[in-house]
C-alpha cells in the first residue's frame, strides 16, 4: 500500500506499473482552485512476486509511506535498500 499526500489545485495522481509496463493500479484526486486543504490518497494493488521492473509514476503528490513493497523503491540499482536483507547480514 502506498499513502500519498496532495495539496493545491489541479490533478494529483499515482500509477503503479508491472514489469511488462501495464498499469496495475492508479489513484487520482482533483483539487479545486482555492482549496487549501490537505488530502490523503491510498494506492493498493495486487503485486506478484516479480522483484525487478516495477515502476511508480507520481504526479503532484508526496509519499507518506510505502508498505509491502520490498526492497524499497530507488532510482538506480545501487540505491536499492532492503531492510530485511540488512538484518539477515547483521545476525
Tell me the strand order in the biggest sheet: 4-1-6
Which class of secondary structure composition applies to the elements?
mainly beta
Regions with pLDDT < 50 over 5+ consecutive residues?
Answer: none
Number of helices: 1
Q: Distance between termini?
A: 28 Å
Give the radius of gyration.
15 Å
Strand content: 35-45%
Number of self-contained structural domains: 1
Shape: elongated
Secondary-structure element order, N to C: EEEEEEH
| Rounded mean pLDDT score | 82
Helix content: under 10%
How would you sum up the major sheet? 3 strands, antiparallel
Question: Can you count the beta strands?
Answer: 6
Write the SSE topology:
Layout: E1 2-7, E2 10-17, E3 23-31, E4 38-43, E5 55-59, E6 62-66, H1 83-90
Antiparallel strand pairs: 1-4, 1-6, 2-3, 2-5
How would you characterize this protein structure?
The chain is elongated and about 45 Å long. By secondary structure, it is mainly beta. It has one domain (2-90). It has 1 helix and 6 strands; from the N terminus they run ββββββα. Strands 4-1-6 form a 3-stranded antiparallel sheet, with no helix packed on it. A hairpin with a 5-residue loop joins strand 2 and strand 3.
Briefly, what is this?
The protein is mainly beta. It is built from one helix and six strands, in the order E-E-E-E-E-E-H.
Any descriptors?
mainly beta, 91 residues, 3-stranded antiparallel beta sheet, single chain, elongated
